[in-house]
Amino acid sequence: MQTVKRLLVISDMHGQIDAFNALLDKVNYTMEEDLLFLLGDYVDRGNNPKAVIKKARELEKQGAVTLKGNHEAMMEKALVDRDLLAVSHWAQNGGAQTLSSYGLSIENVYKEIQDGTLTLPDALQDDLEWIQQLNVYAETEHYFFVHAGVDPEKEISQTDQETFLWIRTPFFEGYCGEKTVIFGHTPTMNLHDSSAVFFGENNIIGIDGGCVFGGQLNCLELPSKATYSVN
């Protein structure tokens, strides 16, 4: 068995397949020597969420660790629970682009859920089943990988899934654990006025460069803490 030489972490691709592929090329990712962590938000807002999910699933088969983001959770609530309020919430957060990449419109999906007539294409149904079984965090001896962060007041075992997917300020300001937490979700522009990777003084590293908002897609390399990005 090959020894892993690097851990690589990417988050918040948001349907931007070209940037995702370009970043993997830039870091010279190889499944033999690298362990890749993807921290969620594959879908919504960008032009090809379906392709990003396909790529994430291929990478997972090669050994990558794939986690769930809050946008996958919104998609799940809309299309699995078939909750009309959830469909509206998802639509406000880029869900239309995701459905469009599978050949559907948000208006029709809303109406068909209302009528009880919604049938999803096989490809979307299959991807939804994959999304449903995604974990919300992963950890190694020194690092904790998660989409949004952790609750500094609670044990991991006592924390609900929503927190791992949605938390912001209480985590940024309150975390003081021994493991370094690597997270996406909050664009780093909101943490230090730059799209570059954010290295917090309290053992947290934010990597969401806000690519879909005109920023950049970041990759963090560990343990070196080298960073790579594409615009």
From TrEMBL:
Q: Please give the GO cellular component terms listed in this UniProt entry.
A: cytoplasm
Q: Name one GO biological process term.
A: RNA decapping
Tell me the InterPro entries matching this sequence. Ap4A_hydrolase, Calcineurin-like_PHP, Metallo-depent_PP-like
Transmembrane residues, as ranges? none
Residue ranges of the Calcineurin-like phosphoesterase domain? 6-187
* Listed GO MF terms: bis(5'-nucleosyl)-tetraphosphatase (symmetrical) activity; phosphatase activity
Which CDD domains does the record associate with it?
MPP_PPP_family (cd00144)
Protein name as annotated? Serine/threonine protein phosphatase 1
Q: Which organism is it from?
A: Sporolactobacillus nakayamae
